[in-house]
Amino acid sequence: MSASERPPAHPRTSSPPRPSPPDLPVPAPAWWQRPGLEVRGDRLALNGHDLGALLRGHGAPLFVYDLARPAENVRALQAALRRAGLPYVTRFALKSCPDPRILAVLRGLGEPGTPDGVGIDACSPGEVLHALANGWPAEAISHTGTNVSERDLDVLLAHPIRLNLDGVSQVERVGRRAPGRAIGLRVNPGAGAGYTADLAYAGERPTKFGVTPDRLDDAIAAARRHGLAVDTLHFHAGSGWLGDQLGEFEAALARATAALERLLDAGFVIREVNVGGGLGRVARDGEVPVDLDAYAATVARHLAPYGVTAAFEPGDFVMKDSAVLLAEVVTVERRGGVTFVGLDVGWNVNCAYFVYGYAQEVLPLRAPMRDRTQLVTVAGHINEAGDVFAEDYPMPDVAEGEGVAILNAGGYLQAMSMTHCLRPTGAAVYLERPAR
Q1: Residue 126 belongs to a domain with what CATH number?
Q2: What is the largest CA-CA distance in the chain?
């Protein structure tokens, strides 16, 4: 089998396998161009700054953030929700990027709980404390965690946050410690959507997330036994899903409303249905972006009859295209008929493909729009075979010493960086958008 005929390493859950690359050369991808990220002369620039100059000045790995982009992305989602006419609240998934500089941008958008404001979606006690330290009131923080320990509850129950419980065991333990408290229930609808199969949080095969339909009556009984007031239904379909998977999200939403009906029949007053996050960002030509108006209309169609507030927890949607990761090509080497382009960064700072299977777009900083002339494997400098960013990837001829940018680096990369192999985690530069 030739390199161009190999199937992708991480096929999407609902899309057919990506076609083999066309005969080379092929034009450079152009999907990524937007205000702020553009070609100036023959150089890749972010917010007017030559990324090659930044790489030379700071070294690699280097995250470069566009401070205007998170706000643009939040505002785009909120505008679609307003057009759908459904009461809503927006909470940022803190795990995607806990960087205080980014949090200051989001906290400045408005008071949490208002249509313009952004609250926090937390999944650990540490995230709750971090949100409090960065200016969010406890009431604006919603915690949804799995396998929550008694030590976790020591912290969580000390603050008047929204607390969504992920299993019958959690309901029992919170009930014993805080009888009468208001809680939410995270349900597993048995259907989900994700950029890869591993990123769907629910489906035919049970996952570790949420109360499954066969245990919902047990959760209801536990809540009643301890006098807990269930006022929120939460579910999460999965992560990184795109526009061609809206139907899969809707299937999960429809099943979640069946759980909502059971909670209402049990006498609970449900004020909020939290549909989680998971909206993805396009990573390659041919992928379909999420139509925000169609997404908002889908949620409104299912939830409007219940008179509830819809809660949204975007993370990657807000942050993914808000940064690039800069690196230098240090090796160009043929091995067994494959060209390996080796970078001076590794999966310790960019685990998007290594862990999640997200496609990666790699642009030369010089003449980024030149034709793609070869199929390569783009690899990192961690001493593990799986440390690659792209395989069978169309790329222009590049030379050792040349700088490149890996796109979609704003979410779940710097936040997850580690010093594996005692490699550095990298610095960050934050760029304001020049006024036009």
Answers
A1: 3.20.20.10
A2: 68
